[in-house]
Amino acid sequence: MKLKILELAFLEIEDGREYYNLQQEKLGDKFKKEIQKSINRILLTPKLYPKTRNDIRRCLLHKFPYSLFYTIDIDTIVILSVAHQRRKPYYWIDDRKM
Asked: Is 5 helix (H, G, I), strand (E, B) or coil?
């Protein structure tokens, strides 16, 4: 499987990393590693995670209150959003072009 991360999703990852690094040294780096672990799990078993809307799937991070939203486009995993679970997690749904 190939991987594509939308630019806004990438920016959400970087924003989260910066936020957590301000809270505690290296915590943002741990956040980014947790994102990578989740992406690796998605790449290994893309249909493991439940569909939330249409063909959008949601993977919850284990150590941080974030969700990865993605779709499967033939042979490519497309990361649409990395959203905080306590803030409107679907805020991005109308803004992203799939």
From this structure: strand
**Cβ atoms within 10 Å, residue 60:** 12
CATH number of the domain at 2-84, please?
Answer: 3.30.2310.20
Compute the radius of gyration of the chain from its Cα atoms. Answer: 13
Question: 82 Cβ partners below 8 Å, 6+ apart?
Answer: 9, 12, 13, 16, 35, 66, 67, 68, 69
What is the pTM (predicted TM-score) of this model?
Answer: 0.86
CA distance 62 to 73: 25
Helices (H) and strands (E) in the chain, counts: 2, 5
| pLDDT tens profile 64-87 | 999 999 999 999 999 999 998 876
Domain chopping of the chain, boundaries: 2-84
